[in-house]
Amino acid sequence: MSQDSLIIKIAGFCVEVKTGSRKSFVYLGPRFKGFFTKSKPDFVVRVGENEQYINLGDVSTIEKRGRKIFCAAKVKSCRKDKSFGKRQLSCNQTEIGFIDLENRIAEIDLSKKDEAFIIPSFLRVILGSYLASNYGMLVHACGVVKDGKGYLFVGAPDSGKSTVAKASKGLRVLSDDCICLRKVNGNFYIFGTPWAPYSSNGSGLLRRIFFLRKGKTLEFRKMAVPKLMQGLFWHGRFTHLNFSFTKGILNTISEIATTIPSYEMHFSLNDNIWEGIERWEI
Fold this sequence. Notes:
Elements: E1 5-10, E2 13-18, H1 22-31, E3 43-49, E4 59-64, E5 67-80, E6 83-100, E7 105-110, H2 115-132, E8 136-146, E9 149-154, H3 161-166, E10 172-175, E11 178-184, E12 187-191, E13 203-214, E14 219-222, H4 225-234, H5 243-259, E15 262-267, H6 273-281
Parallel strand pairs: 2-3, 3-7, 9-13, 13-15
Antiparallel strand pairs: 1-2, 4-5, 5-6, 6-7, 8-9, 8-10, 8-11, 11-12, 12-13, 14-15
Helix pairs in contact: 1-2, 4-5
């Protein structure tokens, strides 16, 4: 790993980020702590500098000539009610880079001022695109490893993912917001990602999936396959959905739904979640 690059490993997928900007290194260091590696990269991202591009942070992708084009709306600073630094959107979008999955390279062209802050989102687009064709996906969930086994707690904002993470003291919390699901050697595993307040670079063989529901008492209800598939798709973290991407995701979801036991978990803040899970699994 040279002085102008960093290699980040997530779910066994290694991405080398090449940039000469010291600001990028300073920003990415704590953001991806625990996810750096010296392994050979699977994908290379070149970060350029062009002051005509300004990062919004809320990004999207489009397809163009067989390549995924990473876009962001233009942003301009404005002054209002004596407050500085507010951002105002214009109606058009600007191309800021591309992702070439076939050749495993990507380029992103950003301003010197804001380039560091868009890189994590760009890497998530790359990982999500790679996983779609490799039996994997990113999902809005909390992931916890207990005795080497992975437990996935899926839910919308304020459904209790962070509550589960806090209740998992002594266990390994991979993330309380974004988990990577990936098939490895015939089995599905959950992996930690760096895009959450609680995060660690670890993994666990997927044992159970729980969809979080707030209730009065701790209760587990078996989910039918169609409902499970719908839930996983709904809570997937997708940056775009074209035909090939959607086909890969649906194949992954279909296999998970037919092989991994999944349940609705109704619980209250006063419930001892892990004691209940242990008692229920016996």
